[in-house]
């Protein structure tokens, strides 16, 4: 029986699009199978802030940032903490990816029309020693156009390949099984779901109206992670982070459920590091949700004071923007799954950004005028102000006593004591009088403002929290927000999947989050941020090129 294509790609997200376009450009026939409708092409990348990890870029050099492959690799390895036998391939992928980020990544994207916002962000700043977690320098390059700007070059390439007749899409086709003949993966079978024109991100119908079977010489799994499936997140939750949260909100739509990961594992693929995951602790319940339990992450600057549910300030160096998993571990150790930011209007105006393409209409819409207003407006960016007005997790008051009363009412636990919070805030405020201090968070603020990018648009001028001229006071209840799977299918550098017996499964490849962004977990335990989209790009490219070469 003739093959339907040379290669089948399961998943129409970023890694799947990258793999498919590389296959098509090699002159091979490729089918992209996607359970959602055409309106969801691009997957989770579309919703992203579009941050990309680049090393020694022209944008960095223009801002006076001195970066190098060696420094970036030092940071990566210090963050990853590889310590398992199965970390052989993840470690190799990490080294290869950092070299890609320091080499051809920017030029490869730029040749396709991709552009970068000129101010480089500083994510995951760490605060330990030079060999531990964190970015030593700013490396978070925001795509001009955010997530849609990342997807657009590959969607354009895919449409061009579709017009040439070498690429075809099968939307609303849900894979139920891999077909294996003589030990080689050679196709897929599944169900056809009824058409559903629901908006991107909304939960779509699961009514089955038929079945399908497709054959090819190779199959690439690019089906994403498990962040929309809270049951699976809890099932894989690592004990090192404490008990799984009772309450979580979702940073991804409901269909990001890990179903295809289970199907592929049942077919014999080796899944490793499934207990490594990346969830944010600065999640807000979306006041205008698109998908169930829809949450948005705050991308905070360094100045907000951070308190646990009991009203105790988080210890050094667990300040905003420093160490996501360190913060998660600490918060879960308190016996509660939420925490608090306390800040001023001056801080929220300059330091709050919200992750997501839909929360950044200036950058997403490529409007320089709107973007410039971030630095000049009297208020915070419009989406932030909307959350402040309508969001269920915000308390805004003119004095601390009323603020604490509102915080206790919102949490319903009555754990916060006015005198305790007041003493901690006043102690911090006394440190603001001098440019040299002992409070490590205030040191961190001074350090941030030495970088021109932070001083211009991301870090408020140091001031006393209880200074009424910078008010009103704001408290934000922070929720655990599910997001990324750091483990995945073990693959070699050609993205070929290993079987449970330790041997390569002929015909099977994996890319993107399903492969732990490369190798089964190239991040190790922690991310440096800006690395998830880049991992999809790199692993999708490797998978597509290797599969195209292998099918002859």
From TrEMBL:
Keywords recorded for this protein, A-Z: Flavoprotein, Oxidoreductase
Pfam families per record: FAD_binding_2
Stretches assigned to the FAD-dependent oxidoreductase 2 FAD-binding domain: 6-533
For this protein, the record's PANTHER family field holds: 3-KETOSTEROID-DELTA-1-DEHYDROGENASE (PTHR43260), KSDD-LIKE STEROID DEHYDROGENASE RV0785 (PTHR43260:SF1)
**SUPFAM superfamilies assigned to the protein according to its UniProt record, in alphabetical order:** FAD/NAD(P)-binding domain
Organism, by scientific name, is Bradyrhizobium lablabi
Protein name, as recorded:
FAD-dependent oxidoreductase 2 FAD-binding domain-containing protein
Question: What's a single GO MF annotation on this record?
Answer: oxidoreductase activity, acting on the CH-CH group of donors
What InterPro entries does the database record attribute to this sequence? FAD-dep_OxRdtase_2_FAD-bd (IPR003953), FAD/NAD-bd_sf (IPR036188), KsdD_DH (IPR014614), Succ_DH/fumarate_Rdtase_cat_sf (IPR027477)
Q: Which domain of life is it from?
A: Bacteria
Tell me its cofactors. FAD
Query: Lineage of the native species?
Result: Bacteria, Pseudomonadati, Pseudomonadota, Alphaproteobacteria, Hyphomicrobiales
């Amino acid at each position: 029986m003739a093959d339907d294509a040379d290669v089948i790609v399961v998943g129409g997200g970023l890694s799947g699009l990258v793999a498919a376009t590389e296959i098509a450009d090699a002159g091979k026939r490729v089918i992209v199978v996607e359970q959602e409708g055409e309106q969801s092409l691009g997957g989770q990348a579309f919703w992203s802030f579009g941050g990309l990890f680049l090393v020694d870029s022209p944008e960095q050099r223009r801002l006076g940032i001195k970066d190098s492959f060696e420094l970036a690799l030092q940071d990566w390895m210090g963050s990853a903490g590889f310590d398992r036998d199965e970390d052989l391939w993840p470690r190799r992928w990490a080294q290869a990816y950092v070299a890609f980020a320091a080499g051809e990544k920017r030029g490869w994207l730029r040749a396709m029309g991709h552009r970068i916002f000129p101010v480089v962000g500083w994510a995951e700043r760490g605060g330990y020693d030079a060999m531990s977690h964190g970015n030593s320098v700013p490396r978070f390059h925001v795509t001009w156009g955010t997530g849609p700007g990342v997807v657009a070059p590959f969607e354009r390439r895919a449409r061009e390949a579709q017009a040439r007749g070498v690429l075809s899409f099968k939307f609303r086709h849900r894979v139920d099984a891999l077909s294996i003949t003589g030990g080689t993966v050679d196709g897929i079978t599944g169900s056809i779901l009824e058409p559903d024109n629901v908006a991107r991100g909304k939960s779509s119908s699961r009514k089955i109206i038929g079945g399908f079977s497709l054959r090819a010489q190779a199959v690439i799994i690019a089906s994403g992670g498990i962040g929309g499936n809270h049951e699976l997140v809890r099932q894989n939750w690592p004990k090192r982070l404490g008990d799984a949260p009772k309450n979580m909100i979702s940073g991804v739509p409901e269909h990001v459920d890990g179903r295809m990961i289970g199907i592929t594992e049942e077919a014999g693929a080796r899944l490793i590091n499934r207990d490594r995951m990346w969830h944010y602790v600065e999640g807000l319940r979306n006041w205008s949700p698109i998908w169930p339990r829809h949450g948005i992450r705050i991308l905070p600057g360094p100045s907000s004071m951070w308190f646990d549910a009991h009203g105790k300030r988080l210890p050094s160096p667990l300040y905003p923007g420093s160490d996501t998993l360190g913060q998660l571990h600490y918060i879960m150790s308190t016996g509660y799954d939420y925490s608090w930011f306390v800040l001023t209007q001056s801080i929220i105006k300059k330091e709050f950004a919200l992750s997501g393409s839909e929360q950044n209409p200036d950058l997403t819409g490529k409007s320089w005028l709107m973007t410039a207003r971030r630095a000049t407006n009297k208020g915070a960016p419009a989406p932030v102000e909307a959350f402040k007005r309508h969001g269920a997790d915000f308390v805004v008051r003119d004095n601390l006593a009323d603020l604490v009363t509102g915080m206790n009412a919102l949490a319903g636990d009555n754990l916060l004591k006015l005198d305790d919070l007041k003493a901690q805030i006043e102690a911090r405020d006394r440190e603001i009088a001098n440019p040299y201090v002992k409070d490590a968070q205030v040191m961190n603020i001074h350090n941030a403002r030495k970088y021109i990018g932070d001083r211009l648009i991301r870090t408020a001028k140091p001031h006393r929290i209880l200074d009424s001229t910078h008010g009103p006071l704001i408290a934000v209840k922070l929720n655990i927000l599910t997001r990324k799977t750091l483990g995945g299918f073990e693959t070699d550098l050609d993205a070929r999947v290993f079987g449970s017996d330790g041997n390569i499964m002929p015909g099977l490849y994996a890319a993107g989050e399903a492969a732990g962004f490369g190798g089964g977990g190239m991040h190790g335990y922690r991310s440096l941020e800006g690395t998830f989209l880049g991992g999809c790009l790199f692993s999708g490219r490797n998978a597509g090129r290797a599969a195209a070469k292998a099918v002859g």
